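WARN retry 2 of 3 for item q-0093 after timeout on previous attempt; input resubmitted unchanged.
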Amino acid sequence: MAASGSLAQTLGITKEGVPDVLDMAEEKISYDPNYVCPVVRTNFEDERNILKRDSDGDGIVDLWDDCVDSTPGAMVDDFGCEAKEPEPSAADFTLDDAQIIDSFKVNIEFASNSTDVLPEYENNLQDVIDALNANPNSGVIIHGHASLDGDAAYNQRLSERRAKAVASLLMTKADIAPRRITAVGYGESRPLVNEESEAANARNRRIEAAIIQLPSNE
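OK item q-0093 returned
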């Protein structure tokens, strides 16, 4: 380092007003091990109140509330802003608790162990479509049933899948909000005939549609 300094002096290089590197290296760096950075403290109770404060009483604390002036009692979303009441859905009801307006036996037959709706049956939902269009506050529960022969667990799953296939076809064929349509499978639990004969199996293996009344948001 000394040689570098001598070379700079020999070459006439000067840095007026700027500490020489050698001078800086020779400076002693001192520190106080007991020095503590000053911290501004607030009252603990104030801090706790800030964390708990909910100015509009919507259940979302102000720290996470994007809308701190929501209307008292209004439904809000996860961000504390007013949200619309969810529209009634057919999925909120079952055959046991719904107000059933009308019922239809859907004339759709399935191949053995299949859930595919054959093209010749695609127009057999018109009565259901007409009933739904006649009452905008109605919905439909498509319910599938199985015969009593075979494995009960398998028949349960098959009835569910067939009901869903018909509900999906209904959504495709009609301009009806999906919330108004739901599907459920009852398997072997609701037979029309408590037998396992060929005739009984044909009656029990069925798809039905229950038109139900939905509550109005108005």
